[in-house]
Task: structure prediction
Amino acid sequence: MPHATPQPVNADDTVTSTFFESSDFPNQPPVMPNNSTEYLASVANTDSLQAIHYPNIFEYNENPSELYFNRELSLLQFHQRVLAQAANPRHPLLERLLFLIIFSSNLDEFFEIRVAGLMQKLQMGDVASSIDGMLPSKVLSYISEIAHHAVAQQYRILNDELLPALAEQDIRYLKRDELTPEQAKWVKEYFEEQVVPVLTPISIDPAHPFPRLVNKSLNFMVSLDGKDGFGREIDLAVVPAPRSLPRVIRLPNELTGGKEHHIMLTAVIHEHIGELFPSMQVTGCHQFRLTRNADLDLSDDVEDLAKALEGELENRRFGAKVRLEVTTNCPRAIVEYLLDEFGLGEEQLYQVNGPVNLTRLLFDFKIPKLRYQPFTHMIPKPFRRESMDKNESVFQTIRKQDVLVHHPFHAFAPVVNLLRQAANDPAVLAIKQTLYRSGTNSEIVQALAEAARNGKEVTAVIELRARFDEKSNIEVANLLQQAGAVVVYGIVGYKTHAKLMMIVRRDEDKIRRYVHLGTGNYHAGNAKMYTDYGLFTANDAITEDVHKIFNELTGMGKPAKLQKLLHAPFTLHDKLIEFIDDEIKHVKAGRQGRIIIKVNALTEKQLIDKLYEASQAGVQVDLITRSMCCLRPQLAGVSDNIRVRSIVGRFLEHTRVYYFANGSLDDTKTKDKEQKFKPRLYCASADWMERNLFNRVEVAFPIEDSTVFNRILEDIHNYLRDNVNAWELDAKGTWTAIQPKEGEPAFSAQEFLLQKIVINKS
Result:
């Protein structure tokens, strides 16, 4: 999902304003595609967003294709769980608005990548390629039904709940007919001085064919009557909304009494659009937005990955067309014209009762009572000055003990500070780091550049193909190279997704390595919004493994033989299968079998099948999956012992944790060293997806320090206790929001961690 911190609306924002324009406020029901109604029938009486349904397609008869949920439909259900937060009064008002924006952003990417991919498959032949056995045409049909229904819910929440509630707080987006004469005068001047110079009306005639429109750009379709200055009778014109101007315009304080009153750029353009066609009469003006395929298509045999990417990034703006959004009051003739022009059908048409694009409706309202309560991101206790011996360095602290950071409850500062100290420490010889999502302004990148300029041997393994961050990563690579760092792009054909940092230091007694391993990216912004673990350690075996992986990434040769780390695409998948098999063996031997897995997604067939086998053997399995889950839980005779839940709350759940009881009798804490069977606990960069396990460089690292072990295990059990932010999945594919039972206290795992780590400063 990507959660995004609200930022001030800026020149790059593209937001529409249908509901802010009296003439474009249709209050009409959305037009649904004329296809099957299996899904809609299943949700007819449950439109409360407390239950997110899967199409009613299963008639289980031991057909293998009915053992799995479809990946795309499961992902769409996650987006619906995000949407449900916008309707949840438990969240502060502005946070609900943000969830609505996040849903819109998620849906954009879903169409740009997932729907676009399905449409490509359909063009190549309607052949099933997913583990559920569903044809691409059928998946697209279900997506259309579900997405249309979800979008209708989205605009109902906006129009019926959020906008009235915002207005009660004096946060308003004024319609054109609500402007005072003074405000109207100011808007007209703004249009003439700021907007007109950058507007480009494009007539549609034999000399001016329909323009090539950029992906997700906002445009007006203008119908005209009369002749232009050359005597031509032109019926239609396209006016792109300029991307160089802010989409949300705050009216001056002197015109609003200091209140948060705004008008949308599109409302300004709509009000004065006739001035662009002085000799003609504007008979209609309607907003539309086109979504294109934004996936990149790079071959594995390119000679220069950076140059190839730079060329492909331009193509992303003009990929194949996948979705058309228009307002509900757009005349049918215009709609059909656009569909024909873009080669799209009714299933790809979305007529919305409100802004054509909610994604850029960002805000920066300084109203604390309408936001989550702010908190100070704490420093882990071992890194606090009062916990360290006099003159003790952070390196000495890590040598004494493994240190766990749990973002966002813990600050990202220890990661940055370690790099900064290393950059200026005469004893530090080398620094090696993987970077997946970053930017030139990142403190991590700046520290690496400083280290390189200070003469340290700095090696950065940068994954240029991190989706939608390709341009930024190219800039990071150039900056680090200019500073003197060695930059490597990883392995062609395999994305480098592992989160690794290694510092080589000459200590008093010997050269020693210090490492940080994480479940999330080295990104300070993400660390404030995503839940992730990071482990600092000087464990010899682990640091040696990290050293070998970096050599593997930068050099050539056989896969590294590792002592402690599990490594994709080589050992991780096989080891996970082996660990599940061990749980089965323990149960058959009369011991406990227990698995708890927390990942962002579970889609890989072999692991799903192995979990089915474990369930049938009597192993108790708990899965905490943020988004996609292709496994069908609670299926009689197949997965009776498997429970699946998802946590959707204030923070985006991103930690990946694998727990296997391994015959131990108690899964709430570690045992003494004499215990015959020791539980296994790993944190990882990898989800349980085919791409992560076979097509990426990933790392899972063991948690061996007892204090850290117990801390993570406690967290996992708290997520299983959550009855506030949790959803549970059943065999039919319905996600149901969990509510506290009668007499049961409400418990939120995220809020508990805020209280424990931040407020209690533990």
About this structure: The longest helix spans residues 136-168. DSSP finds 19 helices and 28 strands in the chain. The first strand starts at residue 51 and ends at 52.
